[in-house]
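Researcher: Quick test of sequence recovery. Tokens follow.
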């Protein structure tokens, strides 16, 4: 490093630039880069004779102790150029048996999520949003990845990290994520399944041969051998083949573009519990069609309500996970994925144990709720306002979110200690699903407040994710 962090920070200050010291990285081909804030704008600094970015500011470079320093905005085009030189800034495929996804709906908290995740033996998936979340936050796959990559860059994290295009339901969404360079694609079968099953006579010869191959196969579970039943396999084939054809098409699109990615199939938001027969059919059918499954998110028994702990019998959940893990081991070796992992403290450890440590967990709402908590703590008046807005828009917010929240369960006014209000189940659930309307109505105020209290915000996000990781791994 040609300039010490202190000298660099000092030299940047007259330009209103605040250096993020931990971001400084030396480049393999000489020079160095760093992240800085200018007001609330994100900047890339480049130390070296020439900057690789087009159209630098005419006032550039500034000179600090004789060294040329170029300042550029953090844009998609600049990020694309930068990640060609620094692969650590590009999403990568998972290289560990355990992985953990942490969505960041505000696009401000990735550095705090990294601070938690890097302390644990899990592969971090940092950009993780569904089209449903994108629509509500007015973001797209590019901006989500750009925000997450900023967190990676600014925190100095050496990677690798994943980026999950979550709950994809159509080809346009897939293409947008592929264009941005995502490394994990989650195919949500819900919409395709809603179109109904295909009659047995109309199934492909391949689907029928998979049924014949799997019938009466035995899976070794901790409770003994479980035989795959032919009628259930036939029903699964009729139900899933049309939906899986869309996954095959999606995988082909990625392959045609030369994208090697991790592929997840999710049925976690379907009504019925996923049977071992359905799981085995999905895995083997995809294999026969040349698609390697990275993970499957089954619908597990019990109730996975947003923002609150697991509701159901933990013992039954553990048995179901163990059975699915056995199916996964027998037919392909993919991992199991647990969605709605936010606040599910009762089952996280059970999930890790029953999967033998080969798993993926997704959380997202819990990071957003920590931001809400900071608002409650430092700006009670804004918090009360957000509560009123959220209540008034409950019906809009609950669309797409199956949630048992009853309006009459919501207190008309919040208690004097607003942070205590977030202990209330109904209030937590309301805030969990209301991010779209709150960001639309008061986004700039929420963001400004969190920027002004960044240390507190980051501490809240980090501490909360650490609680999840402790519950999962210890
Ligand atoms: Zn899900």
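Model:
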């Amino acid at each position: 490093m040609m300039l010490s962090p202190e000298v660099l920070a000092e030299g940047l200050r007259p330009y209103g630039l605040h250096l993020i010291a931990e971001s400084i990285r030396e480049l393999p081909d000489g020079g160095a880069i760093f992240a800085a804030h200018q007001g609330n704008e994100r900047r890339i600094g480049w130390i070296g004779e020439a900057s690789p970015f087009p159209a630098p500011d005419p006032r550039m470079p500034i000179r600090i102790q004789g060294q040329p320093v170029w300042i550029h905005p953090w844009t998609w085009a600049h990020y694309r150029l930068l990640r060609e030189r620094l692969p650590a800034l590009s999403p990568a495929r998972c290289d560990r048996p355990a992985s953990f996804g942490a969505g960041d709906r505000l696009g401000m908290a990735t550095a705090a999520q990294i601070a938690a995740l890097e302390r644990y033996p899990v592969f971090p998936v940092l950009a993780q949003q569904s089209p449903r979340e994108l629509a509500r936050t007015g973001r797209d796959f590019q901006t989500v990845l750009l925000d997450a990559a900023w967190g990676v860059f600014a925190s100095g994290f050496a990677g690798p990290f994943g980026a999950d295009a979550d709950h994809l339901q159509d080809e346009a969404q897939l293409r947008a994520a592929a264009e941005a360079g995502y490394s994990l694609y989650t195919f949500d079968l819900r919409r395709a399944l809603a179109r109904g099953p295909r009659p047995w006579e109309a199934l492909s010869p391949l689907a029928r041969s998979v049924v014949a191959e799997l019938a009466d196969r035995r899976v070794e579970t901790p409770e003994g051998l479980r035989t795959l039943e032919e009628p259930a396999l036939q029903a699964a084939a009729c139900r899933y083949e049309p939906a899986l054809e869309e996954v095959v098409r999606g995988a082909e699109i990625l392959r045609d573009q030369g994208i090697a990615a991790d592929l997840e199939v999710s049925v976690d938001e379907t009504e019925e519990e996923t049977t071992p027969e359905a799981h085995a059919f999905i895995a083997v059918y995809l294999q026969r069609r040349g698609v390697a499954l990275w993970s499957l998110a089954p619908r597990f028994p019990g109730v996975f309500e947003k923002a609150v702990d697991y509701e159901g019998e933990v013992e039954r959940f553990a048995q179901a996970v163990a059975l699915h893990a056995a199916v996964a081991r027998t037919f392909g070796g993919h991992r199991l994925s647990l969605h709605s992992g936010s606040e599910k403290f009762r089952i996280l450890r059970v999930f890790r144990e029953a999967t033998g440590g080969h798993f993926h967990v997704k959380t997202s709402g819990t990071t957003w709720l920590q931001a809400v908590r900071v608002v409650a703590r430092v700006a009670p008046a804004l918090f009360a306002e957000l509560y009123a807005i959220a209540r008034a828009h409950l019906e809009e917010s609950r669309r797409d979110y199956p949630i048992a929240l009853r309006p009459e369960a919501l207190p008309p006014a919040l208690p004097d200690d607003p942070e205590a209000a977030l202990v209330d189940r109904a209030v937590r659930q309301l805030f969990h699903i209301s991010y779209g309307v709150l960001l639309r109505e008061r986004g700039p105020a929420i963001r400004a407040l969190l920027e002004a209290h960044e240390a507190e915000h980051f501490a809240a996000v980090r501490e909360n994710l650490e609680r999840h990781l402790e519950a999962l791994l210890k």
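Residues 167, 266, 268-269, 339 surround zinc ion (CB under 6 Å).
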